[in-house]
What does this fold into?
Amino acid sequence: MHNIDSGIDLYLKESYPWAVLLVTPIMKRTQAQPSSGEIIFIDSTSSCDSTQSTLTLMLTATCAGAIPIAILVHEGQTTESYKEAFKLLAQNYPYSFGSSTVSKHTVNELLCNLYNVRFIMNTTL
It folds into this structure.
């Protein structure tokens, strides 16, 4: 873990597939909110650079709007890449979903939901 100025935490998984987790102080506070245990929005953007990295934002709804609970940067958009990125969050912030424990089941559920959305988007476009 690297602690950058202003309390920002940066975690790296350097082996294949690599992943980076970035959590700011406001994200840490938002992780403890009840809404973080109720609904999580996942938004990924890829192919922004020559390395084909993917930027994944995990957000929750609050009275102030959507606030991120974590930012993940990882290698590509494979199942293994997402799994390793989500595991990095689970290992370092095990209570990031409204103070509920993030488990292997939660990681698998996130992956399943992510691929269901992809399937729907691919079949409707």
Observations:
- The longest strand covers residues 65-75.
- The chain has a mean pLDDT of 83.
- The CA atoms of residues 27 and 69 lie 4 Å apart.
